[in-house]
Amino acid sequence: MYARNASTGSAVWQTPKQLSTTVDEASIEIINGTIYVSGVNGVLYALNPSTGNILWQFATNNKILSTPIFTKKYVIIYI
Questions:
Q1: φ, ψ (nearest 5 deg) of residue 25
Q2: 7 near 37, Cβ under 8 Å?
Q3: Which residues, including other chains, have CB under 8 Å from residue 8's CB and lie 6 or more apart?
Q4: Cα gap 65→73, rounded to integer Å
């Protein structure tokens, strides 16, 4: 995954290769200032939008089959 400056196209950050290869068919959402990425590896990642650093991750042990749903308190994942 890459973040690019919307005005200039210059690089801002890039996720580590091991993360990039596990989210080939990723679903990406930005909610309340956090990037959420889920992919075929069955892990939901929360990323810092300024740095791309992983804030937390949750392994479902199954493929995540849809974009997560967000409520005021919860992230709901369909596996």
A1: -110, 55
A2: no
A3: none
A4: 21
Report whether 45 contacts 57 (CB < 8 A): yes
d(CA 12, CA 66) in angstroms, rounded, equals 28
- Residue pair 29/70 in contact (Cβ under 8 Å)? The answer is yes
CA Rg value for the chain = 13
Listed in sequence order, the residues at least 6 apart from 30 whose beta carbon sits closer than 8 Å to its beta carbon are: 36, 49
Return the sign of the alpha-carbon dihedral for residues 7, 13, 19, 21. Answer: positive
Task: Pull the structure tokens for residue 8.
Answer: 């200039």
pLDDT one-digit tens code per residue, 3-62: 999 999 999 998 876 665 555 566 788 999 999 988 777 888 899 999 999 999 999 888
Q: Which two tokens stand for residue 52?
A: 């791309």
